[in-house]
Design a protein that fits this description.
Blueprint: H1 10-31, H2 35-55, H3 63-67
């Protein structure tokens, strides 16, 4: 079989089935058994439910976010970089010979 069923996120599939079923019920109720209108309303209801589930920031753990997580790689902080050359002193006096009094 070309589809590896072990890799399928069954929770995600189940949620899409629930959304499609609810969208079908809503579409049929609102269309008064007109098939064309029922199909259009079902598609619109499904799109609204799916967008709400996938993109609204409601804080629920989404099945899509579980599949896209990658293991975090921790790296050690980088060592400070040594200066390229000697730095000039900030003191404007460069002559260090003692002065006669």
């Amino acid at each position: 079989m070309p589809i590896d069923l072990a890799q399928v996120d069954w929770l995600y599939v189940a949620m899409l089935m629930v959304f499609a079923g609810l969208a079908s019920v809503v579409g049929n109720l609102l269309s008064f058994n007109h098939l064309g209108r029922a199909a259009l309303l079902t598609a619109l209801a499904f799109a609204a439910m799916f967008v709400f589930w996938a993109y609204y920031p409601h804080g629920l753990p989404l099945p899509t976010s579980l599949a896209q997580k990658t293991p975090a790689v921790t790296t050690a902080p980088a060592a400070p970089v040594a200066p390229a050359g000697p730095q000039r002193p900030r003191n404007p006096v460069t002559d260090i010979t003692p002065q006669a009094r």
